[in-house]
Write a structure and sequence with these properties.
This protein has about 190 residues and is mostly helical. It is built from ten helices and four strands, in the order ααααββββαααααα. Helix 2 packs antiparallel against helix 5.
Length: about 190
């Protein structure tokens, strides 16, 4: 299996999100934005329904996504931040109506089917090619990007490890693709 990289440059993250917005690809914009802000694996992300994120009775977005992870079978509770909610609102405003059982990232094939992982991969890969982003970027990169930027903002590694349900800090360090450039930055900024 090919190793994927996080998107380390915040300008590249903005360019990726804007790529979809400028093309009026609101589903793809929301998919990327929610993935970047929730650290969900692509399978869990694509399985989300509007009922998972939006309370139709109150007309408000939920504070948390509560789900059982496909890979681990563990329950996970993820806070929905402003960026994720804003992307979902943009998508929702382009749709006629949404029902709680309707998939958020719907395929155009079939009735109420989510897009498949391979199609999500192609969506990301095409954008990465068009934008000429460096590194090996895929759907899983979006999950890694969340952790990498959390680490850069000073979130304790043990907390990132817990978010990812990793069994050791070593796994988390490898997962975040911390490299020599990241180490150099620490040394160059210290200046004691």
């Amino acid at each position: 299996m090919c190793k994927t990289d996080p998107i380390k440059n915040t300008e590249d993250i903005k360019r990726l999100k804007n790529y979809f917005l400028l093309r009026n690809q609101y589903r793809n914009y929301a998919m990327v934005t929610v993935a970047l802000n929730t650290s969900l694996r692509i399978g869990d992300l694509l399985g989300l329904t509007w009922g998972d994120v939006y309370n139709a009775k109150t007309g408000k977005y939920r504070e948390h996504i509560v789900l059982i992870e496909q890979k681990t079978g563990k329950r996970n509770i993820i806070a929905l931040n402003k960026e994720a909610i804003q992307a979902l609102k943009i998508l929702q405003n382009t749709l006629d109506a949404v029902t709680p059982s309707e998939y958020i990232f719907k395929s155009r094939v079939g009735i109420n089917q989510p897009i498949v992982r391979s199609y999500a991969f192609r969506i990301i890969k095409q954008a990465v090619l068009d934008l000429n982003l460096e590194g090996t970027i895929s759907c899983h990169s979006l999950r890694k990007t969340f952790g990498y930027h959390a680490w850069k903002k000073g979130v304790p590694p043990a907390l990132i490890m817990s978010i990812y349900n990793h069994s050791s800090i070593e796994i988390t360090k490898r997962y975040l693709s911390i490299d020599q450039d990241d180490k150099d930055e620490v040394f160059l900024e210290m200046n004691l």
